[in-house]
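Entry 12.
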Amino acid sequence: SETGSATVDVQTILDDVATTTAVFSEIPVTLVTSGTLILGIGTTTPVIELDTDGDSIPDITIEPDRKVLTLSELLESLRTTIESLNVKPHLKKQLLKKLNNLEKKIAKQKLKKISKTIMHLNNQVLRKAGKGKLTDQDAQMILELLEAIENALSFT
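Predicted 3D structure (tokens):
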């Protein structure tokens, strides 16, 4: 029989903003494979029950390859990262102000402004790292979180 693979992204939609909550990659499938997504309640991670032989009885249960942080978890992680930086208080204050600004725009769903704010924060981090005011490691951590935030904000 023919085989292939499928990837399933599970997203939560709240106030017209979709955030990825789980990713199931490279699920093996055939022409007779069927699956049922079992959504988690509260903090329970969703799973997929797969019927691989077409008899309507689940044969395997697949867990997501990785738990994707929610938007609020990513923002909180970015705040914690900035607060723990070993930098001049003025720089920390600037970065936190930009983060607060970003959070307000996300709350108001100002989509174009969110993207612009993330870009400005990215550029500021790169400039400060270039001038040695931020370590490359700190800058990298912040940039990765910003990218994850931007990815989490896939708009419907």
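Annotation: The radius of gyration is 20 Å. Strands lie at 3-14, 17-30, 34-38, 47-51, 60-62, 66-67, 154-155.
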